Amino acid sequence: MGRLADRLPISRPAVSQHLKVLKAAGLVRDRAEGTRRIYALDHAGVDQIRAFLDAFWRDDLQRFADFVDREAGAHGTIPPPRKATAHD
Q1: Which of 65, 25, 59 is nearest to 42 (CA)?
Q2: Which of 15, 21, 38, 48 has its CA at a distance of 20 to 30 angstroms from the CA of residue 84?
Q3: Residue range 13-69, pLDDT digits in tens
Q4: Taking the domains of the chain in order of start, what are their residue ranges?
Q5: CA distances from 57 to 35, 49, 52, 53 (A)
């Protein structure tokens, strides 16, 4: 934690508390190395958050696109064609 804490504008106890929360959330993992703890990202946890955010934004953006299409139809304008994405 020392190298990490040295680079941050918060105290070591604050860094320790943040790492504890991140570990409990499954976003980082740690291992003992002598008297030190070595922290690393837990890719499985990060992947879960990524999937959640991707779905959230995909759904939210789809609702916005549907709204724009409805508004354009209500005003007699034709919306520009949408490009296909990997999520379509």
Answers
A1: 25
A2: 48
A3: 999 999 999 999 999 999 999 998 999 999 999 999 999 988 888 888 888 989 988
A4: 2-41, 43-88
A5: 42, 12, 9, 6
